[in-house]
Amino acid sequence: MNLQHVKAVFDEQKQPAFRLAQAKRAFFVDMVGGWDQVTTFSKPLREALEKGVAWSSVKLVVVKKSADAKTIKALFECADGKKIEAVLMRSETGRNTVCLSCQVGCPMGCTFCATGTMGLVRNLTAEEMVDQVMHFARELKPEGAQVTNIVYMGMGEPMNNYDEVMKSIRALHDPEGFNLGSRHFTVSTCGLVPGILKFAEEPMQVNLAISLHSAVNETRTKIMPVNRAFPVEKLMNAVETYCARTNRKVFFEYLLLKGINDTPEEARALIKLMEKNPRLYHVNLIKYHDTALYEGTPKDDRNDFLLQLKEAEIPVTHRVSFGEDIDAACGQLAVRESSTGKMTQGTEAARENRQSKPKPAGV
Ligand code: SF4
After folding, report:
1. Cβ-contact 348, 131 below 8 angstroms
2. What pTM did the predictor assign?
3. How many Å apart are CA 352 and CA 344, to the nearest integer?
């Protein structure tokens, strides 16, 4: 919901200032589904709002649920017809994490990522990010459950849309609204150093995650073109600046790709990098779901990799993988709409995107 537009309607209708707080409460706290349900407002006022301001800037198009019902993927349409995806992951401990998109597509071209095959279409507004979260929050409410965590790990690179990402975090953190604690947000970057340095200066205690995927420059450049501009050393200098400034933990995401970044040499390089700050560095190993370009590391080899890190006393978690069967896992979010209007999602969309584009450099 765009609160500036709401205020404009109230001004036009000569409403007192407290109406805005009432609208915010209906949207973020009561989580009703539309203006017609805000019964604290008169009917004519509700009708004026209905005409002037969309309750949500994103419209639900398709929902997919994983077989175990723990993962729900939503495809949304924005007001300009662009499509984005967001995922709700539900754990047995009661954690309900929303993985949201911050861009339509992504310009960073990581070769293992379905979104990267789309290229950048446009940045999302803060409102479009907030509305992805609020969709799931409204879905959870009837069963007394809440969104407990928000991760900026869906489509797009948050540091490329920095101001709107931060604006969305402030909106969802607002104690008079959704009121989610700052430590429950995680912003994930593929390693854009200027963004990390800016993020280090933020007053809010939001978590930082780095999509590392290799500690070896040669490998990382092959799978993540961003490494040409910001190689591992430069990236880690920025991370250290962040740690020195915030004293906060940094999470390193590491998708295990068979024969690419799962070798003993890669493990040793990762250990060497992580040994520099075992108090604040934490590695998340993630299972990769096979695509036309890469295979995921088999289970036994993933366990071996994990063991090597554990033996070196590196804080490490083998992250649970969500939503593999509905293309909602890490690196699987993609949308493609053909000229005939036919729409495909996930790995199928990525395959079609790749076929219509030249092969990415370095693969
Ligand atoms: Fe973009 Fe992230 Fe995919 Fe890389 S992994 S292409 S940064 S969405």
Report:
1. no
2. 0.92
3. 9
User: Does any ligand 1 atom lie closer than 6 A to the CB of residue 151?
Assistant: no
Tokens of 10: 């109230």
| Residue 257 DSSP label | B
Residue 249: both structure tokens together: 């933990």
Q: 172 alpha carbon to ligand 1 midpoint, in Å?
A: 23
Of the residues 110, 188, 353, 357, which should be mutated to test ligand 1's pocket, given the most ligand atoms within 8 Å of the CB?
Answer: 110
C-alpha dist (Å) from residue 329 to 208, 244, 326, 333, 344? 20, 32, 8, 8, 16
pLDDT score of 361: 33
DSSP state of 29: I
At 119-160, the pLDDT tens digits run 999 999 999 999 999 999 999 999 999 999 999 999 999 999
Q: What is the mean pLDDT of residues 23-48?
A: 96
Q: How far apart are CA 89 and CA 71, in angstroms?
A: 5
For 146-160, letters b (16+ CB in 10 Å) and e give ebbbbbbbbbbbbbb
**For 245-269, what is each residue's pLDDT tens digit?**
999 999 999 999 999 999 999 999 9
How far CA 327 is from CA of 14, 101, 151, 360, in Å, comes to 48, 15, 17, 21
Cα 277 to middle of ligand 1, angstroms: 26
